[in-house]
Write a structure and sequence with these properties.
The chain has 231 residues and is α+β, with helices and mostly antiparallel strands. It has two domains: 146 residues, Outer membrane lipoprotein wza fold like (Roll); 73 residues, wza like fold (2-Layer Sandwich), CATH 3.30.1950.10. It contains six helices and ten strands, in the order ααββββαβββαββαβα. The radius of gyration is 26 Å and the shape is elongated.
């Protein structure tokens, strides 16, 4: 091996080692522990999704035009104001649960055997973020069908230097910031579940130190005239 070749290999080794030292070990839970924190939830129809602040509702009460309207909305406190029924905590309820509560309140004092329907006419838009080693990081709209795979696809997929086994998701759970680590390769192969991404989540795709060092080396190699050692 020539001295120039040895120098080149030493430079590459130094780049790899420096890349590995950029961060400590990733201590976020992975595998089954990650799935417990970030469970997979089957895509549900709108009727099965819980109500959120800002959702617009159509409430219809048979034979009661003064109570029937398409303009009801879950307010900033998570409540819905309905004449005769009063203020009802709605955020976190499913439409069917809100209908049951309305039926109970109206039937208790005002209307005999009320026939009530609750329909979500407009969902309040909520978002998640994708950062790190993706081609187009940004903020995207969360829907009931958004999973980790589709979230990263919206960011135009990982970059060439992304570490596919270092895909992290951060979420506020019970008022605390929680995180977990997922292996994108396992999810793509069907060997691991594809967790649902919720509004407010942040997805961070990690960097592969080896791939990054190799890319840096190749970018620097022409300046040192070192390409010949790989022929």
């Amino acid at each position: 091996m020539t001295s120039k070749a040895a120098l080149a290999l030493a430079a590459l080794a130094a780049l790899v080692l420096s890349g590995c030292d950029r961060s400590g070990p990733n201590l976020l839970p992975t595998g089954a522990a990650a799935a417990d924190l970030f469970p997979v939830r089957a895509a549900a129809a709108t009727e099965d999704e819980v109500l959120r602040v800002g959702d617009r509702l159509a409430i219809r009460v048979l034979g009661e035009p003064e109570l029937t309207s398409d303009l009801y909305r879950v307010d900033g406190s998570g409540n819905v104001q309905v004449p005769l029924a009063g203020e009802i905590p709605a955020a976190g309820l499913r439409p069917a649960e809100l209908r049951e509560e309305l039926t109970r309140r109206l039937g208790r004092r005002f209307i005999r055997n009320p026939q009530v329907a609750v329909i979500v006419t407009e969902r309040n838009k909520t978002t998640f973020a994708v950062e790190g080693n993706v081609r187009e990081p940004g903020v995207f709209e969360a829907t009931p069908t958004t999973t980790l795979i589709s979230a990263i696809a919206q960011a135009k997929s990982p970059t060439e230097t992304a570490s596919l086994d270092e895909v992290m998701v951060f979420r506020i759970i019970n008022g605390q910031r929680a995180g977990a680590r997922f292996n994108l390769k396992d999810i793509r192969r069907g060997n691991a579940p594809d967790p649902q991404i919720l509004a407010g989540d942040t997805v961070v795709v990690g960097n592969s130190a080896l791939k990054g060092a190799w890319r840096e080396f190749l970018q620097a190699a022409p300046a040192f005239n070192l390409f010949y050692i790989f022929r």
